[in-house]
Design a protein that fits this description.
Chain lengths: 138, 505
């Protein structure tokens, strides 16, 4: 289970209603169930990297814009500024942490059928199988 | 016969004429060649056997199933930058997840192997060309037909015309490609002639036994002679050892486990050489994203169906379009929150082209305290090649009509909007940490040499000082190639297999 602070970070990273063609946010795209599988099966480096990246986002990223952590104290706009500062930081390590966050989030979001439909990604022959497995349409 | 170690869950001790470790381009080609002799053969693959119909269109489960260590994050080359190393780990090895690109060893590279490393006689070009002719016939190699170029490849053809540079449809080992852009996650139609659907079934039909989900821990030696391979069957996702196995080799043990795993296995088996694990080379590459007014539909067309070799020799880089699934496109898009989503929404209008370089850097592969440790840092000259490569990609993009380019380079603007902005890439950061690399095509960690003091493996592919113990994968290459290595690996593995067969009867 994601803790509430992690939830806020990820919702800031990929919010709902950010674009007319992609109204779903990360948590509307099934991230909770994706994360359960991720926490169980991802390799240790990626799993621990993701947890650590969340920690950095919560406790370090606000410092980059001169704010006291945690990030959950602030408005969405300020949170976005903090995470953007992490993404463009001069410290390679912080940029790498953001890269891990975004990649893991994208593993879920880019696999979502409705997101794929929205960007014009063609339906594949195995979508039927995925739907039967409960993974195709969330 | 395929023995699935994950399902069978019982100990195995059997004897074969030849035991081959690894089922990728090298191991499968050796199996295919030896199978013609009627010898009994075992092929041992660490990864699982995944049926073509099981290949999934989603990156995360695919990485878990068929990439080494679960894919992203599992193995990084460490230097000033962390560079993810991409390797397949399933029956058929990386041939299952590559783009089936076919290049013979370029003459200039072979010449340097001949002159600088004295390997001309060990790797005779006439023999290699015969092998490549055979492989190309058997694996249906042909230039990518325009019908499956798709937008991403077609734009490079436009750029070629507008800039008058050398570029052409990529030669690939595919049969009836549908242009579904799914090479990286395993071709679900069996069109790509990976080892999974070509040479391994050929060997099995002639009696070879394949052991999957079988991790080889060491080669058992007796008086410097390789006698057997031993290890454990294991589960493929959450790694857990199951039953042990020992496969005895009456004639030879042949290692083809890749330039990362081969030196580690040799070291665990008691091979000592200062060259073992050293001289690690690769083709690190970065990509740029072009934004076009018209839809490109990156996901339609051959994954990598066109390429430019304009600067292969003078600039040490090639240019290749890359079709990526939405997950990987999204992950590389800049921005947080609304801006990130806006960038994702442009996905249909994006083209992705990469510039893999023939890096001069040499690294090292060792068993570290926390697992495989790969040290690798690009040289200043490599960074010049890379920046020139990215500038060239930008020139090509603008020549193809790109509205703007997303460079994904720290310290540069998020978007380059004018053709003259390409110079920003050429004068970009010198630190590799500013770039997003991926490292594929791995070489050199058990290099071939005539004298034991210069390498790990002799010119007969046998480990120096050992008997019946051969290495046939790209570990033996003295340098990288500057082109996609699958075909070079297969041609050399076929040569090795014939020599081993002749020697052992």
């Amino acid at each position: 289970m994601l803790n509430p602070r992690a939830h806020v970070v990820l919702d800031t990273l990929l919010p709902p209603h950010a674009h007319p063609s992609l109204p779903r946010g990360l948590f509307d795209a099934g991230f909770e169930s994706f994360y359960q599988n991720f926490a169980r099966t991802a390799n240790g480096t990626l799993r621990q990297g993701f947890q650590f990246a969340l920690f950095i986002a919560i406790w370090i990223s606000p410092l980059l814009i001169g704010r006291i952590p945690p990030i959950t104290l602030y408005s969405r706009e300020t949170r976005e500024r903090a995470l953007a500062a992490m993404e463009s930081s001069r410290f390679y390590f912080l940029r790498q942490m953001m890269l891990i966050l975004k990649n893991v989030v994208a593993f879920c979001y880019g696999a979502n059928r409705e997101v794929r439909d929205a960007i014009g990604y063609p339906r594949q022959h195995d979508d039927l199988r995925d739907t039967q497995n409960g993974r195709g349409s969330l | 016969m395929i023995f699935d170690g994950e399902k069978e869950q019982r100990a195995v001790a059997e004897a074969f004429d030849y035991v081959i470790v690894g089922s990728g381009a090298a191991g499968a080609t050796v199996a295919r060649t030896l199978a013609d002799s009627g010898a009994s053969i075992a092929v041992v693959e660490e990864g699982p056997a995944v049926d073509t119909a099981e290949f999934d269109d989603h990156i995360f489960p695919t990485m878990q199933r068929i990439f080494r260590g679960g894919g992203l994050g599992a193995l990084n080359a460490r230097g000033r930058a962390f560079i993810p190393i991409i390797q397949g780990s399933c029956l058929g090895g990386t041939t299952v997840v590559n783009s089936a690109i076919v290049w013979r060893i370029p003459n200039d590279v072979w010449e340097s192997w001949n002159v600088e490393y004295g390997l001309g006689k060990a790797l005779p070009l006439t023999e290699l060309h015969k092998n490549w002719d055979q492989i190309e016939r058997e694996l249906y190699v042909e230039p990518t037909p325009p019908a499956v170029w798709g937008g991403n490849n077609r734009l490079l053809d436009v750029a070629k015309t507008n800039l008058s540079v050398s570029a052409f449809p990529t030669r690939r080992n595919v049969r009836d490609c549908r242009g579904s852009a799914r090479c990286f996650t395993g071709c679900p139609f069996g069109a790509k002639q990976s080892m999974l659907v070509s040479y391994l079934p050929y060997a099995v039909k002639r009696g070879a036994t394949i052991f999957t989900s079988a991790r080889v821990d060491r080669i058992l030696m007796e008086e410097n002679q390789a006698k057997a391979v031993t290890g454990f069957f294991h589960t493929s996702t959450v790694k857990k050892d199951l039953a042990p196995f020992t496969l005895y080799a009456r004639k030879a043990v042949i290692v083809a486990a890749s330039a990362i795993q081969t030196p580690l296995l040799l070291a665990r088996s008691g091979v000592h050489s200062s060259h073992l694990g050293a001289h690690f080379q690769g083709h690190p590459g970065c990509s740029l994203t072009g934004v076009f007014d018209q839809p490109v539909n990156l996901w339609s067309g051959a994954t990598q169906g066109y390429e430019s070799d304009q600067h292969r020799v003078d600039g040490r880089f090639k240019v290749e379009p890359l079709a990526l699934p939405p997950e990987l496109v999204f992950g590389a898009m800049p921005g947080i929150g609304k801006r990130w989503v806006e960038n994702m929404a442009q996905a249909a209008h994006l083209a992705v082209w990469s510039a893999p370089i023939r890096a001069e850097a040499e690294g090292a592969v060792r068993e570290g305290r926390f697992g495989t440790d790969v040290r690798y840092d690009l040289t200043p000259r490599d960074m010049i090649f890379l920046r020139q490569g990215l500038k060239f990609v930008a020139d090509l993009f603008f020549a193809a009509g790109a509205r703007e380019i997303i460079p994904n380079v720290h310290g540069l603007p998020e978007r380059l909007k004018h053709p003259e902005d390409g110079r920003l890439l050429e004068s970009g950061p010198e630190n590799p940490a500013a770039y997003s690399f991926a490292l594929t095509h791995l070489f050199g960690t058990a290099r071939m040499s005539a004298r034991p003091q210069d390498g790990v493996v002799g010119t007969d592919f046998c480990v120096h000082g050992a008997r019946n113990f051969y290495v046939v994968d790209s570990s033996v290459f003295p340098t990288n190639l500057g082109v996609n290595p699958q075909h070079a690996i297969m041609g050399i593995a076929m040569l090795a297999a014939r020599q081993i067969m002749a020697k052992n009867g």
